Amino acid sequence: MLENLPIVQGDPLWALLHQFNADQRDHKIDMLVGVYRDETGQTPVMQQVQKAEQKLAAVAESKSYKMLSGNLEFNDHMAKFLLGDSERFSDQCTIQTVGGSGALRVIADFVATLSPDAVIWNTNPGYLNHRPIMEGAGLNVEPFRWQHVGGVLDIEACFEDLEQAKEGDILLLHGSCHNPSGVDPSLAQWQQFIDFCLAKKVVPFIDIAYQGFGDGPEEDAAGLRLFVEQVDFMLVAASCSKNMGLYCERTGVAMVITNDHSQHAPLRTLLERITRANYSMPPNHGAAVASLLFSDPEPWLAELSVCRERINDLRKALGNLLLEMNAPVSLQAVTRQKGMFSLLPLTPEQMTALREKHAIYGMLNGRINIAGLKQAQVSYLAKALVDVMKSEC
Ligand SMILES: Cc1ncc(COP(=O)(O)O)c(C=O)c1O
């Protein structure tokens, strides 16, 4: 068997991370990994999460198996968090998953079971794991361009590429804080995607992994909620990794929305059959913590707003400096982008120069995690960016 073992390329992110750890320069900056960092460079456990964990430990609830759909209270809270006070609450069928990635895979398996010929239309550039997850479920993936003009999504380019989408295909969109570009549609552009889905009978699939990291939890769900108001059938994958800092607790949900309630029982059964055949049921700890946070959300939302404001302040400070320095306009777009990530308009050679000459680590495709930065490093980064953009590489 092992003679068939393929030589697979390691993940480029982890290779760069090893390089970062081995780098002896004191002023090195890690803008690689997609986790939130505070001003001290830590990825802290939120205080409300710690409190919830203490509460849970004191109660020491039984570790007996939960339902196949996971923690039902958590699922209800998540549906409300995602949909707001939508009249369509009763149209959703939600199951707990192993993080947002688990939600993506469960929905991919769901689509592959019911509609194996559906093509998944995926933003390019996009989240690195979307394609492997979809293809892992046996689905075909096609890219469509996701680029900006002066910081605004170039929707003409999207629709040019989506021209070939056929009835029953899936349009995979990021709910907010697009990874890796930070470029989100305006509300008017969300409406254009809705009109497209309705006209072409394409199914929307929204992956929302950063609700609360852009403009706020309500604002960041506005596109998703606009879809929910107008589209009978849609798919949602959501994660609590970032907005609750529950990364390794693997907490998320998969949601199917349909106004045909006669389909709710069979579709829940199918979702549960998919998870049963994979991992049976998701771990409970993160969902139990999240349920406590949702039951008294204000203190948690206040902590979340500190994270969001830190990122937005860093973006503003960087953008202002780049403006003062007369940096290329394409670089200044960083202020208009949302969430942790931005895609720098730099070539792989320029990203390498940024690393080798200035000890600033980002992905070769230009992706940087703004949250990896400290206020005191903003000016150093701005000067380094202008320097590598001037160079001939
Ligand atoms: C767009 C997007 N979707 C899904 C995920 C996966 O989230 P999780 O860590 O909860 O699996 C991520 C994580 O980086 C992401 O950026």
UniProtKB/TrEMBL annotation:
Protein name: Aromatic amino acid transaminase
Database matches in SUPFAM superfamilies: PLP-dependent transferases
Cross-referenced Pfam families: Aminotran_1_2 (PF00155)
Residues of the Aminotransferase class I/classII large domain: 27-385
Cleaved signal peptide residues: none
Co-factor(s): pyridoxal 5'-phosphate
Assembly mode: Homodimer.
Stored InterPro entries: Aminotransferase_I/II_large (IPR004839), Asp_trans (IPR000796), PyrdxlP-dep_Trfase (IPR015424), PyrdxlP-dep_Trfase_major (IPR015421), PyrdxlP-dep_Trfase_small (IPR015422)
Family affiliation: Belongs to the class-I pyridoxal-phosphate-dependent aminotransferase family.
Alphabetically ordered keywords of this record: Aminotransferase, Pyridoxal phosphate, Transferase
